[in-house]
Amino acid sequence: MIRVGLVSMAHMHAYSYAKALLTLKDRAAISGVFDPDGERGNKAAEQLSVPYYSDLQALLAESDAVIICSENSLHMKYTMAAAAAGCHVLCEKPIATNEEDALRMIAACDQAGVKLQIAFPVRFAAPVQRAKELLDANAIGDILCIKGTNHGQMPGGWFVDRQLSGGGAVMDHTVHVVDLIRWFLQKEVVSVYAEVDTMLYDVDIDDCGMLSLELEGGVFATQDPSWSRPRTFPTWGDVLMDIVGTKGTLRVDAFAQGLTVFDDDAQQVVQHSWSEDMDTLLIEDFIHILETDAAPTITGYDGLQAMRTALAAYESARQQRAVSVTK
Asked: Which domain holds residue 250?
């Protein structure tokens, strides 16, 4: 039985991950909730029927692993503490808000002999899994270019506080699609040209952008990571990719497997997925890795490279030119 502690409930995915853990009754258990926000932490612990810890070290002492869903700027602090206590880590994306913190996280987990996995659940969506199979089989030939989007609703809260989030829509949504591109092609992003702005909401942070990416081997890609979905949109957002190869094209819609429900009584349109839940599959994968002592499916380095691309996009927008991405 793997004992998993929940470190902060700041991110909305925390409850989804907790729900997934509860379905793995014979394999995993929630050891408790730590959150510096006592009201938020106590509320979550009560809903999940687990202990609340105001002291992180007390939770770590009762855990084999942790899921970190804090504000982005605190990922490094909590990962370092978990590694020092010998706890494996599943960290919400982005891995950190700057390269120094990300490198420290990776090094600390390596030195402590604990696993560091980054939460990119879109890899587990059924359409994405099928696309990976087709691309690995060279079904559309050599890849020439990719057009991707990860639109979403404007989340508000700490996501629009630059000190806590490290960036707005570009930081929030670039990393998902960049991770998929790297995973699909097994190529690194070489350079980025980006336009970044605030045009949709009255917030002091970017809410839209457009990225042009050059990858190894001359492949190029574009991505729109904007918070451009209205509150009435039937899902939180989208992850779409058009992949062009020498023998054909492939369109990927990560959220295509769903039923759209028009509810006149509630005056809303909602999409109900009939696919397997990608967050649940991410958690099952993490638990399997711990049970079998396997290497992480999505490594700290994967998180680092996705974050580096987002940071390069901000630097490109600042300098108004293409900038290189470290690897």
From this structure: 122-276+307-324
Q: Could you say which of 119, 149, 165 is where a domain stops?
A: 119
Which CATH number do you get for residue 144?
3.30.360.10
Q: Using CA of residue 310, residue 207, residue 162, residue 7, what is the dihedral sign?
A: negative
Contact, 168 vs 207, CB < 8 A? yes
CB 21 within 8 A of CB 13: no
**Domain check: are 209 and 311 in the same one?**
yes
The answer to whether the peptide bond before residue 234 is cis (omega within 30 degrees of 0) is no
End-to-end CA distance of the chain: 37
Q: Kindly report the CATH number assigned to the domain that includes residue 25.
A: 3.40.50.720
Domain count, the chain: 2
- The kind and range of the H/E element at 194 are strand 189-197
**Which candidate, 43, 42, 105, places its Cα nearest to that of 72?**
105
Same domain, 92 and 235: no
Q: What is the pLDDT of residues 163-220, one digit of tens each?
A: 999 999 999 999 999 999 999 999 999 999 999 999 999 999 999 999 999 999 999 9
Residue 280 to residues 19, 128, 251, 277, 299: CA-CA distances in angstroms? 8, 15, 24, 5, 18
